[in-house]
Write a structure and sequence with these properties.
69 residues; alpha+beta; three-stranded antiparallel beta sheet; 3 strands
Length: 69
């Protein structure tokens, strides 16, 4: 999601969901900042981080880790 509130054009946010192994949304990765610093090219980076976390949660590799999953 890429958002620029209609009344306040000085703040922009980008967010992507983090899913568990059953495709339930369990968290989100987001960035918010001044519009002049948050641009559409940030979207792929946020989505990539969310996908990496989703993949980690979906594998047995994180069981017993500090995540406590």
């Amino acid at each position: 999601m890429f958002s620029r509130p209609p009344r306040e054009n000085t703040i922009t946010g980008v967010a992507a969901p983090v899913l568990d192994r059953h495709d339930n949304i369990v968290a989100a990765v987001s960035i918010v900042g001044p519009t002049e610093r948050i641009r559409p090219p940030h979207i792929p980076a946020v989505v990539t981080v969310a996908r990496v976390i989703t993949h980690a949660l979906a594998t047995d590799a994180v069981r017993g880790s500090v995540l406590g999953v």
